[in-house]
Specification:
Structural class: mainly alpha
Strand content: under 5%
Number of helices: 2
Radius of gyration: 17 Å
Strand order of the largest sheet: 1-2
Order of helices and strands: HEEH
Length: about 110
């Protein structure tokens, strides 16, 4: 008996830091989960960098659209937005500057 092989897509959701590193080439996606009509198995993995790591567009993605930030500064901005009742998805970095192309901002 041979093992059953099932091909399935691998779904990748770039988030805020990936958007910055790629200078907006990969836009951050909002997290959405819907109930599919079929059985689904998910393996979720979240990756982050050290709090003091400076995150800025990599040089080969062109002139920077976003100012540098740190992972810690970014997380602080998220927590501040939650404390203000604004939700975790935002279009401001920790200095209040616009940066999310995915949210329609330049």
């Amino acid at each position: 008996m041979s093992p059953h092989r099932r091909t399935a897509p691998l779904t990748f959701f770039p988030k805020d830091m990936m958007e910055r590193w790629t200078n907006g080439v990969l836009a951050a996606t909002e997290h959405r989960v819907g109930k599919p009509p079929h059985e689904r198995f998910s393996i979720v993995r979240f990756n982050g960098v050290a709090s003091k790591t400076v995150v800025e567009p990599l040089p080969h993605f062109g002139a920077p659209k976003y100012p540098p930030t740190t992972m810690g500064g970014h997380m602080k901005a998220i927590y501040d937005r939650l404390d203000e009742g604004q939700g975790s998805e935002g279009s401001r970095n920790f200095e209040g500057q616009e940066w999310r192309t995915g949210a329609g901002n330049a």
